[in-house]
Amino acid sequence: MRTIHIDSIIEAVEKLCIDSNYYLNDDMVKGLEKGFEKEESDNGREILSKIIENAQIARERSMAICQDTGMAVVFADIGQDVHIMGGSLTDAINEGVRRGYEKGYLRKSVVNDPIERINTKDNTPAVIHYNIIDGDKIKITVAPKGFGSENMSALKMLTPSQGIEGVKNFIIETVEKAGPNPCPPIVVGVGIGGTMEKAAFLAKKALLRPIDKRNDVPYLKELEEEMLERINRLGIGPAGLGGRITALGVNIEVFPTHIAGLPVAVNINCHATRHAEAVI
After folding, report:
1. In the prediction, which pLDDT does 216 show?
2. Which pLDDT value is given to residue 56?
3. Which segments within the chain are labelled E, that is strand?
4. Residue 129 pairs with which residues in a beta bridge?
5. pLDDT, position 226
6. What is the mean pLDDT of residues 116-138?
7. Which of 20, 3, 43 lies closest to 239, judged by CA?
8. Which residues lie closer than 8 Å to 39 by C-beta, 6 or more apart?
9. Confidence at residue 246, expressed as pLDDT on a 0 to 100 scale
């Protein structure tokens, strides 16, 4: 049994909140650069060049990529041979978020109640997903989620008879309906199977996978490629002003489901698809 003090967790989460908001992941930067090369619209190329420049400035000057620094979504993979001492793991993660958003001068966007809507002033609480794994380490991933894109996400409980074509149609319909609102070019996370909440979780987790890494399952790899091609034929384009590059990637994850169900969730992310991870 390995012991980890909550101070290590607080420090890690604090740094991850700042790093994820300052430094756009390499796969996204490369995706934007490739998109610039493929884009045929003058407006689209101009917008993509500005997005790339913005990411470079954020990295060089250590400042947020986007003014919407998101709600902190945290994935915590906890080794079953770890003992956490010094306090609550949930409290430690939230303390790390509080410190990170204060120290990094990141916008505080969380309200204490969805109806009363009083700002918590420190961007807590985080949305935390716990997973128990083998080993004696803790892997923490912080993925700030902006709500211009989150608001465009959708869930549908399809029937098994609607099959793969129903899944495809729902993905396309969701992206088409979103239009310019999620700040394209976007990344599309798709979760298929499980239950209602499992499909939504899979769609969110799919956004953590690098956009240049396809699913290992052959039919899912083909589906990701087909959906990306079809989405980029919609003509929404960068910033929704028309063009060839509406999405940079489509990542799909699946899970077993009930004989009577076919849940599908589509979680859209903007061009600032941000996440950072650390292993303690």
Report:
1. 97
2. 98
3. 2-5, 71-79, 82-85, 127-133, 138-145, 154-158, 186-194, 247-257, 262-269, 276-279
4. 75
5. 98
6. 98
7. 43
8. 45, 48, 237, 238, 243, 244, 245
9. 98
Would you state the pLDDT for residue 257? 98
Residues in CB range of 16: below 8 A, 6 or more apart: 96, 100, 140, 141, 142, 276, 277, 278
Residue 66 phi, psi dihedral angles, 5° rounding? -135, 150
> How much of the chain is helix, strand and coil, in % rounded to 5?
40, 25, 35
Q: Where are the alpha helices (DSSP H) in 109-153?
A: 147-150
Q: Report residue 245's pLDDT band, with 50, 70 and 90 as the boundaries.
A: very high
Q: For residue 201, which amino acid is it?
A: F
Q: How far is CA 230 from CA 43, 100, 165, 211, 223, in A?
A: 21, 39, 13, 16, 10
Mind listing the pLDDT tens digit for each residue in 31-55? Answer: 999 999 999 999 999 999 999 999 9
The rounded Cα 169 to chain-centroid distance in angstroms is 22
Q: In 86-185, which ranges are E strands?
A: 127-133, 138-145, 154-158
Q: Which amino acid is at 271?
A: H
Buried b (16+ CB within 10 A) or exposed e, 169-194: ebbbebbeebebebbbbbbbbbbbbb
Q: With bands split at pLDDT 50, 70 and 90, how would you rate the model's confidence at 206? A: very high
Task: Say what the pTM is.
Answer: 0.97
Q: Any idea which residue has 């892997």 for tokens?
A: 139
